[in-house]
């Protein structure tokens, strides 16, 4: 499962195994083994890969995995109490704007203190 996710994230970023291996200071063979599932990275390498792809370790190793799709439906997903909700475009926009207002308000309160 991890190997499949690694390959998907790498492909979505549009980089080759050679390029990712060079950036991560790994051999291309190591990376290929990770993607094929014949080897697993050590903890430090796993963290570095998750940081590189800007994903949580949970999603990277298969816990609460949501595929990195580009379709509208996957872009409008929210989790409430651990339950996945598919949002309409209108709901998604409303929540995004509400979050922006909340963060702006909290920031202004902190500045006053």
Helix and strand content put the structural class at mainly alpha
State the helix count: 7
Shape: elongated
CATH fold-type name of the largest domain: 434 Repressor (Amino-terminal Domain)
Identify low-pLDDT runs. 69-73
Q: Please tell me the CATH architecture of the largest domain by its name.
A: Orthogonal Bundle
Most strands sheet: 2 strands, antiparallel
Strand order across the largest sheet: 1-2
End-to-end CA span:
48 Å
Taken in chain order, the helices and strands follow as HHHHHHEEH
Helix content: 55-70%
CATH superfamily of the largest domain: lambda repressor-like DNA-binding domains
What can you see in these coordinates?
This protein folds into 2 domains: 2-61, lambda repressor-like DNA-binding domains (434 Repressor (Amino-terminal Domain), Orthogonal Bundle); 72-112. 65% of the residues lie in helices and 7% in strands. It has helices spanning 2-13, 17-24, 28-36, 43-53, 57-61, 72-75, 89-112, and strands at residues 77-80, 83-86. Helix 1 (2-13) crosses helix 3 and helix 2 crosses helix 3. This is HTH cro/C1-type domain-containing protein. Residues 6-60 form the HTH cro/C1-type domain. Keywords: DNA-binding.
């Amino acid at each position: 499962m991890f190997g499949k996710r690694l390959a998907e994230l790498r492909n979505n970023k549009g980089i080759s195994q050679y390029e990712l291996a060079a950036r991560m200071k790994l051999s291309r063979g190591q990376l290929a083994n990770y993607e094929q599932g014949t080897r697993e990275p050590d903890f430090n390498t796993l963290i570095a890969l998750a940081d590189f792809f800007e994903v949580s370790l949970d999603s990277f190793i298969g816990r609460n995995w949501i595929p990195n799709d580009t379709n509208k439906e996957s872009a409008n997903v929210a989790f409430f109490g651990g339950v996945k909700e598919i949002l309409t475009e209108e709901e998604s926009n409303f929540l995004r704007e509400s979050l922006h207002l909340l963060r702006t308000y909290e920031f202004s309160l902190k500045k006053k203190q």
